[in-house]
Every structure is written in structure tokens, then in C-alpha cells.
């Protein structure tokens, strides 16, 4: 009987079909052969050779599940992002509301003496789409967001690699801000890292699906957060939904890109996401100022 080449089989046991691959060399492995690693599973050869000189050509160049370089500190970018959020929070507490007014996401100048008539994304201050994602005023607000970042960030950073994880985080933040700018009240200020955090939620769900993990814990946590999103007053739900959508789409491209066209698919998806954000902002600006 001929073997169906469309079905992956364990490279050590050709009679066993499998949907799991070694996260280092990407060869298919069955449950008997897979060995739990910090992220996903590895085959016996990659575990035996460690970071060194195995027989397989890819084993000598360890890569993350998404093709990124394996770093010694898989939390470095997470730590830097957390530090930036905390530093800006301290700056806001020190400098007062004027700094918040300069960095918060606001579509167009509201009729309030606290803002100048030339402020807002519609007036060309597009940097607010990103600076607002690092801005917090209340201790509970930054506490919840940074807890989410510390919980979700390291596993994603280890699985994607530093550069891909950073791209995921920033594009999720911008996606949340863009949706807020598109449909929310342009005179309502919005701030916080929640859009980026929801992007990490979406990416975590995609990653767990890719690794065939039990998705119930992350789905329950996501549902709980969505309930808070739509029931708690003064929450910019647009940022949460925008970040979630962008994070899930980008993560899917990062972890499911075929090895032969990995860079094209990954860079192309991130570039397309950025173009969508720019297009949304241009159209909304024309609608507000035209």
C-alpha cells in the first residue's frame, strides 16, 4: 500500500501519523518520540545534541517555532516593554495631567480647555496611536495590564523570537488604537496597553492551537476579560477588539507560515497589517476633517 504523502508521519516511526513537529528541526514526531521543551516539543536527536552539532542540518541552528533565533533570555523584550510602561506611568504621576494630554489617543480636539485646537490624530499627531498604548493613569489599570503582559509575554516571546514578538505587540497596540480612532467618539481620550494585551491573548490562543495544547484555560481567561470589556464602564472596547483581531491574525501567519516561504508570509502579513492601520487612519482623518 502506498503512503499518502499529504499525511505527516513520524520520521522515526513511518507507520504512525502525527500532527506534531519538533520545534527545533521541524521534523514530524509521534507522541512516543516527542520530548517536552520550554516551548512545544523536540525530537530525541535535537534534545541529545542540545544547541550543538546534531546530524540534521537545522539542529545546529536552533530556531523558535516561528523561525526566530533562540535567545538566552526569552523574557528580554517583555521586560523592556514592561519597564517602558512603568517608567511612563511614573512620569505621568510626576508631571501631572499635562503629559497625559500630550500623549493620550484622541481623534480630534474636543471642546475642553485642557486641549488645544490643533491636538488629535486628525490634526496629524499620529504618534498618539502608539504613545497612548504605553500610557496609564491609575495604579489598578497599569497593574492589570502589566500582569497580563508578564503572564502572556514570555511564552510568546520564546515561541516567536524577539523581533517577531515585538512586531506582534506593537501592531496589536496600533490595531487597537486604529479601531478606536475609526468608530469611537473622536473627542473621547483613550489610553492603556489593553489593545496590545488583547493581541497577546489572541496570539496565545493561536499558539496553543498550533501546539495542540488544551485551549480551555486561555479561552476561559479571554472570555472573562471580554465580559469585563463590555460590562465595565469607561473601557474602550474598540481597542480590545482591534488588538485581539490583529494579534490573532498576525500570530497565525507567524506560526503557520510554510518553511519555504516563511519570511515572505511573515513580513508580508506584518506589512499588510500596518497598511490596513494606515488606510483606516487616513480614511477616518478625511472623514473628520473633510
Structural account:
It is found in: Membrane. It holds the Pfam family Rhomboid. This protein has 290 residues and is mostly helical. The chain is elongated and about 70 Å long. The N terminus is likely disordered. The protein has a two-stranded antiparallel ribbon with strand order 1-2. The longest helix has 28 residues. The protein has 10 helices and 2 strands. It folds into 2 domains: 62 residues, Herpes Virus-1, CATH 3.30.40; 213 residues, Up-down Bundle (Rhomboid-like fold).
Key words describing this protein structure:
290 residues; mainly alpha; Herpes Virus-1; Rhomboid-like fold; two-stranded antiparallel sheet; hydrolase; Rhomboid_protease_S54
Question: Measured on Cα atoms, how large is the radius of gyration?
Answer: 22 Å
Number of domains: 2
CATH homologous superfamily annotation of the largest domain: Rhomboid-like
How many β-strands, per DSSP? 2
Q: What is the fold-level CATH name, i.e. the topology of the largest domain?
A: Rhomboid-like fold
Q: What is the H/E order? A: EEHHHHHHHHHH
Distance from first to last alpha carbon: 68 Å
| Percent in helix | 55-70%
- CATH architecture descriptor text of the largest domain: Up-down Bundle
Overall body shape: elongated
Low-confidence stretches: 1-5, 51-60
Number of helical regions: 10
